[in-house]
Specification:
With 314 residues, the chain is α/β, with parallel strands linked by helices. Helices cover 48% and strands 12% of the residues. The strands form two sheets. It has a four-stranded mixed beta sheet with strand order 1-4-3-2, sandwiched between helices.
Length: 314
């Protein structure tokens, strides 16, 4: 973090905006906490995150709106637009400038920098359309039920039952000049091609909007993932014999839980790494194997452990 800019509290017509009929119509479909609670909101200035801030204010929350500026688009007027909107809404917005680390996958590095500022409990403006796109991307990765389930409804994703078209309509109805990020249309990003090419093609082939069906698929997979997590609660993932004795999906759920606790990492290892852990769990298999991100699994007297491999640190 290298700089911070704070817009003031001056309110022009914030109360009237928050009482708008469309705001009140959409609010019951959101999953905000009870009025009076504080909520940090990621505010990029686009329609989705702007709708998030509007709806959070309308829900009676103490909104801490944070805009993370990556410095990747020289000359953009995001701050001016955010100041203008924050003045009209009567809220506060902090703009935090971050330096995006070097390396491959610029999109992922920018996302990690943003999450580092917002923290794990911040709310974002993801919609049902984002969740549907995530389902398609998870299918392309060959993900299991946890990956296909994708985002979870709740305080962190309060707009997941709204559509992107509704957030755009809301901002237009309120006369809010939102920020247009050109990277959202760049074809080099797979998600953008899923959004602009794959989903429209699916809609054309199926002769219906594919988003509700993909969201329903995600909900079914969430139920399955929750069931597997419950069934794995009594499985000791460090007991190699016990791990290979249960059904593979249950064993995978136990390994995922163990991985998060032992490594502190949010994302579990991929299917190949999970397979290597199960191979080491089998007494007929190898005694150790590399897993992911500089971690390896080892077996001694039937017990498994995760350990750092000094020669393979990320």
């Amino acid at each position: 973090m290298s700089a911070e800019h704070i817009a003031g509290f001056a309110s022009v017509d914030g109360g009237e905006l928050l009482d708008h009929d469309l705001v009140q119509a959409l609010l019951p479909r959101c999953t905000f906490p009870a009025p009076g609670n504080a909520l940090r909101c990621g505010w990029s200035g686009g329609p989705d995150s702007t709708a998030l801030v509007v709806m959070a204010l309308a829900a009676g929350l103490e909104v801490d709106a944070v805009h993370v500026e990556h410095g990747l688009r020289p000359g953009n007027d995001d701050r001016a637009r955010l100041d203008e909107m924050s003045d009209r809404l009567g809220c506060q917005v902090h703009t935090v400038i971050v330096q995006v680390g070097v390396g491959s996958n610029l999109e992922a590095r920018a996302r990690n920098a943003r999450l580092g500022v917002l923290g794990p409990n911040a709310a974002t403006g993801h919609t049902a359309d984002d969740r549907a796109e995530g389902v398609v991307l998870a299918m392309l990765r060959g993900a299991g039920p946890w990956g296909l389930a994708g985002m979870i409804r709740g305080v962190g994703k309060p707009l997941l039952d709204l559509r992107r078209a509704e957030t755009v309509e809301l901002c237009a109805a309120l006369g809010l000049r939102t920020v247009d990020d050109p990277t959202n249309a760049a074809p080099k990003h797979l998600r953008n091609r899923v959004r602009r090419e794959v989903l429209p093609l699916l809609g054309e082939l199926n002769e219906r909007d594919p988003v509700p069906q993909l969201v329903r698929l995600a909900d079914h997979q969430r139920e399955l993932a929750n069931l597997l997590d419950e069934q794995s609660a009594g499985v000791d993932p460090t007991d190699g014999g016990g791990l290979i004795a249960v059904e593979r999906p249950v064993a995978v759920a136990a390994i995922r839980r163990w991985w998060r606790i032992e490594t502190g990492e949010i994302h579990p290892p991929d299917h190949r790494a999970l397979a290597r852990i199960l191979e080491v769990a089998d007494p007929r298999g190898p005694a150790r194997a590399d897993v992911a991100n500089g971690w390896r699994v080892a077996r001694t007297a039937g017990r498994l452990r995760l350990e750092r491999d000094p020669g393979r640190l990320p």
